[in-house]
Amino acid sequence: MSTPSASAPAGVRALWARTGTTGLVYLALALLLVLSTVYVATQGRNLFTTANTVDLFTRSSLLGFLAIGQTLVILCRSLDLSVGYVAALSTVVAATVMAGDPARVPLGIAATLGLAALIGLANGTIVTWLRVNPFIATLGTGLIIKGYLDTNFQGPAGAVPAAFQAFGYTRIGVLPVSTLVMLVLAVAAVVFLHRSRTGYHMYAVGGDAEVARLSGVRDRVPVITAHVLCSMTAGVAGLLLAARFGTGSALVYNNGYELEAIAAVVLGGTYLLGGRGGVAGTIAGVFILATLDTVFNVLAVDPFVKDVLRGVIVIAAVAIYARGRLSRSAVRVRFPSGGPPPPAPGKDPDTGPPPPGGAGTDGARRAPAPVAPAAPVTEGGGR
């Protein structure tokens, strides 16, 4: 995203230049794991027991699905505050359509993802065609979904067959299948962003929508696509929740998943104003938050203190990124060649200052030599 200031140690600047923001986020994750392991060990406990490791991966899978889609939207300089409500609605739709019948699992998955895609299409259309601020547009969509859920579903709804519940509980060693699916989806998102035309256009629109439009990019298409994909990943998160609960739960929107997903995206180094960042960094941000949650649970930290610490970490990360961007602009060289500034528009460059030592040995600027006036012409052509 940016480079450290010139006053920073040379080693830090070299590391930043070599690894980039994504590399530094993964280094921060590795450092957090080491420090957490040491601190938990000093308390007489083991962070990486089988149960704790499974818990860490399980937490990361749900948040990862939401954060991957949120990354695509934020890269386009947009935002989606409806993902938590979409996930809640998806649990109800999936459980209701499946109705405990294994033969209806494909239909339940298709209905859930299809409805999520329609919600994303509505969000993208409102943002791009009606020019409604994405914060307001997606918050309004989320409140509509909340009102529908509160009115029609007062408790558990539907039933998820045992065959699909395996998605929420099956694991390979200590790695849950849901985490494996999340990582595969993350790789697909990285390939999409860096190998497809729409992915390039998302970065272009997020960097400067007007410049992208003047360059021939249809600026509405990437934003709408990002919102559709974001809602679909929220639908996948809803499917995972339904598999874990065994039924539909309309109240999962109370968990604040949308804000947690945005925090993971920011921790991963994606610029909130769009155009910079990526899914690879977001996955590191997801694991940072999952690691913190696991450590807090192992140490039985008070939930209020846990939220305070997580908030401080997110604010500190954003402050570091912002300081790096400001430092970069502060040390920008106006004339990289080291020479004088170019002449002002409309002036003859020949009347500008001569190069040092050109007109005199001291290199001082000299006034141009006066031009002698022409002699008057007398009658008959003589002078």
Topology:
Blueprint: H1 10-42, H2 50-75, H3 83-98, H4 105-128, H5 134-152, H6 162-169, E1 171-172, E2 175-176, H7 177-195, H8 197-207, H9 209-214, H10 220-245, H11 257-267, H12 279-298, H13 303-330
Antiparallel strand pairs: 1-2
Helix pairs in contact: 1-12, 2-7, 2-10, 2-11, 2-12, 3-4, 3-5, 3-10, 4-5, 4-10, 6-10, 7-8, 8-10, 11-12
Keywords:
383 residues, mainly alpha, ABC transporter involved in vitamin B12 uptake, BtuC, two-stranded antiparallel ribbon, 64% helix, disordered N terminus, transmembrane transporter activity, ABC_transp_permease, cell inner membrane, cell membrane, Autoinducer 2 import system permease protein LsrD
Give a brief description.
It is a multi-pass membrane protein. With 383 residues, the protein is mostly helical. The chain has one domain: ABC transporter involved in vitamin B12 uptake, BtuC (Orthogonal Bundle).
